[in-house]
Amino acid sequence: MAAPRILTRRVDSGIAQRLERSGIHPLLARLWAARGVAEPAETRGEWTSMLAPHGLTHASRAAELLADAIRDRKRLLIVADYDCDGATACAVGIRGLRSMGADVDFLVPNRFETGYGLSPAVVDLAVKHPRMGKPDIIVTVDNGIASIDGVAAAKAVGIDVIVTDHHLPGDVLPDALAIVNPNQPGCGFPSKNLAGVGVIFYLMLALRAELRKRGVYPADGGPRLNTLVDLVALGTVADVVKLDANNRLLVAQGLQRIRKGLMQPGVQALFVVASRAPREASTFDMGFALGPRINAAGRLADMSLGIRCLITDDEDEALQLARQLDTINRERRDIEATMRDQALLAVESLTASMNASVCVFDAGWHQGVVGLVASKLKDKFWCPTIAFAPAGDGELRGSGRSVPDVHLRDVLDLVSKRYPQLIRKFGGHAMAAGLTLHESDFPVFASAFDAAVRELSGRSQFEPALETDGSLDTCYANTEMATLLDQQVWGSGFPAPVFVDTFTVRNQRIVGEKHLKLALERGSQRFDGIWFGRADSLPAAVDVAYRLGLNNWNGMVAVQLLVEHAEPARRNER
Fold this sequence. Notes:
The chain is an alpha/beta fold.
């Protein structure tokens, strides 16, 4: 991959000054202004600033239906997606509904047997649910907006359906009793970026409000639903939805509770097996430590393991399940590493004419991990990438990742129009998509995909860019500022700050066989630095793009620069 262009985010100085005058730290004011924050209220993360549930289309209607179901002692079954967002959404639904008196259980599809979402095959399983038998109402979480056939199948056997989802709808909506989805046509909810767990959390708030209205609870009574916000934060970060002001509020509230030790036993257990400290919890922990352990169950085994971990109140059971999830995640990492190495060999053998994209397939690959492999290859070669694995009956299942210059779903749509019989089904969005095709069609698809990428983008190569926040004033390069930055909510659409400055390299060595450990000097300050995954040495003077981090060693805490990129210094150009 070519070296990235280093770009500096633009800052509206007037907005930054207004934020600073409101009492916000000058550096945070500058960073937040560069990320589109315009008002101090957007940064406070207080419950009073949260968007109201009644603005979510059908939330009140769905709440009425659930309140009726609780009154009439109907049996509710949550059908969840098989990723971390789906698992946390299921846990919020189970815990929230049970706290309000509902008879509710869950069912999660096996992605390799019943497909995605509420399919007719999942309805067949629901009818024979081992604990409750045929449910009266199915509530989908993090899926259902595309389940036209599944909702019809449920209705045919006398099961009503309430859909809660956040994915983009198709041209036709399912014939459900109610659809709660901020992205459905006509919904005026200001945040279109709620994760699936955020949608069901909002529905639980609406249900409690409905029960208060009916006199079941006093005006300010009922279960304290803020106790579920650790799950909301985990699912929101793990699903990589855009962290707009409302999502940042939810995540900030979740982090506050976790840092105080107030969390579900399963979340606590995940921190234990990940060797992370809840009192120092960050969005990084959720996205890279806890989330992958939940996701691993859905990729390789049974996501009910992850859901059970999140809904149990037994600390011993939670720890046992978390350890199982940790073991599965280790297996996932081993499989992913093997597949990635095989994929790199396969890419090296591709012809030079196919450099606008990468398509790889191996008969021995695991379909639960191809998305991770596609992501790694996309990062390495910086072009749209799809990895395929066998799905049985001569079919391949592919998962793709893209770069900002290429809308992946639009590319697949163009291929499907040019070759109507080639892709059996596909779906997704700009940066990620999935599809199925026949194994014998793989070579034709790889060529057609590459041609479509070139046509829609007008390019055969793509140049990566690294957005930074410019230089960090030396007075802020300390542990206090690193701690303050680490406590903030960063993530998709609101990236963690990356600074760029010129350093002298005083020492460098390889640690752990593949990481570059650095001693860097800037003016009179010296810093430890580390560049993960980098084994090549650096010149004496370098421009370094870095994140400000903390290094805890033998009880001592010091600033550590986490290197994102470095190149020979261009002192005269800066």
